[in-house]
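Researcher: Re-running this chain for the archive, since the previous output was lost when a drive failed. Same request as before.
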Amino acid sequence: MGIDEDLEKLLDNLPFFIQENLNNHANKDKLIEIVMDLGRRPEARFTNGSEYVSQKIVSWQDIDYITKRISHFSNENRAGIERTLHRISCIRNRQSLINGLTCRVGRAIFGTISIIRDLLESGQSILILGKPGVGKTTIIREIARVLSDEMEKRVIIVDTSNEIAGDSDIPHSGIGRARRMQVAKTEFQHQIMIEAVENHMPEIIIIDEIGTELEALAARTIAEKGVQLVGTTHGNCLENLIKNPSLADLIGGIQYVTLSDDEAKRRGTQKSILERKAYPAFQIAIEINQQNSWTIHENIKNSIDLILRGNYNVSQIRQLLTNEKTRLKYKKFQTHSLSLFKTSSFLKNSSISNINNWTILMQQSQIRSRNLKTKKLVIYTYSLSNNLIKEAARKLGLKILLTKEIKQASIVIGLKKHLKQNLKLKKLAKQRIIPIYTLNRASIYQVIKLFQSLTC
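Model: Regenerated structure tokens:
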């Protein structure tokens, strides 16, 4: 996992007494932000705690020294440093004079989204939820790079606060080949979202911090135009969106439904219940619980229905282990009461059916995984990257051997359009009774699906 942080460019703009202490600090690579308040000692905050970095008290001159070396502050009291991802936010007094600064370290972390790469390749819209500071912006910056560079998609980023691609007119290299549209004022974000689709023909739109009803409506409009969305919003889980009227439209909206006496009796619930109003704008939701542990809702529609109709929800948990392998497991979560809506939770017969289907899918996944681990696969690849095959095998915990000699192979894997033209290879494989498996395109998602289906 690589990191590009340009930390020196931030430290060079700080007063010497702070710069000197941080340059030699043992936890320099874990620095999150530097806080400077008038009349107080400067404080550095790290991932493992915070500490004062000098005995000297911050003066007006120190704050003025920094503000003159960075870009102008926007209406949201944010500024940046050219060609970097660092962000400086200010606190003002009643006379609008700056008496406090928060210097946030911006980092482009390469490889952080390997845990969800197969979801990106699925082509579905993805909503990322998490509390402030958990790393949502870092994640979607890396998503933009992977989608534009590695998957060669037309990607446009709607960058309202310049946190995704930096404060310069030239976007930071951390977003790859993705294009960036800057937003002059926060209240115009929904208009720029629509403009991006109408004027620039993107395949994917990336939006950070969807927070208003107009932005949620714009996201729905974009989804209905057939454009893939990747967005973030504040909230720990899907239930937070259900209880937030402004953002409920992202998950299909929530409405009261009045049942007849017979229907309410059949369902065993009250006559007034809550149901999802329409299809969600996003198909997949990712809850960022911890840095290396994410909860995945592979079907938002089903997850929302289960939350509204019962007191449980089945979700997938993905954990990135220290050896860079991904652990997948399914867990049944107890959901909180939706008493804020003044309605009791209920369970339809169809919900029981959904849970049974989930259980069957989990059992099949575990059986396939065990069967694959007992087989030794010697693979001959044709028109496919060996690294792609290795990464897919690593994610499933498979031990494979790649060979350049077809006579040593137990299977052949290649792209369909190329294998179709190689009659000699097909004839040789047929003579040696070596099965050939074809993929429509070179994606890790398709390779993983192939490995999982080999023992069905």
